[in-house]
Amino acid sequence: MLDEVSRWLSRRSFRAADYPIEGLVAAKRSPTLGGGTEGTTVSVVLPALDEEETVGGIVTVIREQLMRPELPLVDELVVMDSGSTDRTAEVAAGAGAKVVRREEVLPGTPVLPGKGEVLWRSLAATRGDVICFVDADLRSFSSDFVSGIVGPLLVDRELQLVKAMYDRPLGDVPGEHGVAAAMGGGRATELVARPLLNLHVPLLSGFVQPLGGEYAARRGLLERLPFPVGYGVEIGLLIDALRVAGLDALAQSDVGVRYHRHQDAQALGRMATAIYETVGQRLGRSERREGAGSEGGIELVQFERATGGGFMARGHVVDARSRAAVVDHPEYRGGERWEE
């Protein structure tokens, strides 16, 4: 398996540095590289839930570096607000993003909680031929996180999806926690996702960051994929993209270092449950049983130290549902500009 992974890595691994903005703008204007008669349009989507501290800086970098009139790599920048209770929407709009609340898209469909739900709805809130997802909690953000993953899609019409790969330190900012923690941030990846992929979907074992929230794909592919509504969305999309498009249509691009807020151990446990169940569903090996949790969810029992001593069991429902491919949704009009 290692030899096969190495061959795919050499063929389908790229670097952001190899995609200067000037060349990408020229490529996206070409009608021969997978776009329409007027070239390829690019939408960037930031799913956001209470990210007032970071979302404005990300929006500012994208607008100033990738949406300049003379070098318009990005045509549309949308922050999808997932029910924030802080100033996320206000900050994002003030920085120049178009803010869309999840309830405003496909309004005839009741909203489900979760990041995947927002990503699924974003297809109806954007018009780009290429959709680029970027998490809204990134710190020390670089525009390479967009150009580095959009670039391969603009110059190679055979590619359908490109994921970012990067170093992932445990600290939130450069230098925090020292050198020893330089690669310690991807705990759910190394402890859950990577073993699952190596054991059950080895063709995907070459992805450095299979759970990463930064990836770009052609609209036509995303429209045909089911979207897990919760934490399982990234690994679910990757497995389903392999099934629909094949391994050679998938790639990854090195964008440097990713700094962001990290989850505590119990939150990681809930994330791991969703990842495990998402993979199990796609393999036809789900271990859910009737009555194992609330409708559409899995009850994960976790423990907290009780005030009077001992431990207290608490149940947390992890949503394991998926949205069907949006192309079949009666409210969806793919690629049309969303109107207020």
Summarize the model shown.
This protein has ten helices and 16 strands. It has helices at 2-12, 21-28, 55-66, 88-95, 115-125, 144-155, 187-200, 219-222, 233-245, 265-283; strands at residues 13-15, 42-48, 67-68, 71-72, 76-81, 98-101, 130-133, 138-139, 161-167, 215-218, 227-228, 250-257, 259-260, 297-305, 311-319, 322-323. The chain has an eight-stranded mixed beta sheet, with helices on both faces. Strands 3-4 form a two-stranded antiparallel ribbon. Strands 8-13 form a two-stranded antiparallel sheet.
What does this structure look like?
The chain is globular, with a radius of gyration of 20 Å. 33% of the residues lie in helices and 21% in strands. It has 340 residues and is α/β, with parallel strands linked by helices. It has 10 helices and 16 strands. It has one domain (2-281): Spore Coat Polysaccharide Biosynthesis Protein SpsA, Chain A (Alpha-Beta Complex), CATH 3.90.550.10. α4 links the parallel β5 (76-81) and β6.
